Amino acid sequence: MGSGRVIAAVAALAAVSSVLTAAPAYAHGSMGTPKSRIYTCFLEGPENPRSAACKAAVAAGDSWPLYDWDEVNIGDADGRSREIIPDGKLCSAGRDKYKGLDLPRADWPATNLPSSGTYTFEYALTAAHQGTFELYVTKPGYDPTKPLKWSDLEDKPFYKQDDPPASGQSYHLTATLPGGRTGRHLIYAIWQRHWPDSGEAFYSCSDVLFS
């Protein structure tokens, strides 16, 4: 092989390596504690999940979306989440790809939470970005067997912070739990990136049981 071809081949390999190395920058995250619906189903195994709810999610939207557990997003949300995500599609961020996450069921795997006090949420990430985290909780009287609407959530987040601390593969969101709730509820997380970096936002639904 001539020197020109060797140089071209090396350049091509370098370009491929660069693309592969950059790929993780396009992945992001989802709530890890309490686990989001998509993260739960991913950990159960997309091809053969254990829980009835995750099986139903796969039946509704196939298994392959679960491998993208860190990508329930809208690329240009720019703080307009309530305007651009329709009622009944909050958990999928209005994306058909993730429609299985919107299934209204009372048997989604849930995490036990204390009824009050301080709790540290852990947001599992595959790429860190500057941005604002908001956590919302469903109102008293929430019915998980009905499609989730914006009006089911409290108007204001019980936690909101720019660039919370991160260690390992998680952001750590230390919040005061809202109180006044027992039984099954849902925590809705919005991670809104900041311009000029990006207007992208990520969303997750975590089913919880307040003790």
TrEMBL record:
Domain Chitin-binding type-4: 28-208
First and last residue of the signal peptide: 1-22
InterPro entries: Cellulose/chitin-bd_N, GlcNAc_Chitin_IntDeg, Ig_E-set
Listed PANTHER family: CHITIN-BINDING TYPE-4 DOMAIN-CONTAINING PROTEIN, GLCNAC-BINDING PROTEIN A
Keywords: Signal
The protein, known as: Chitin-binding type-4 domain-containing protein
Keyword Transcription among record annotations: no
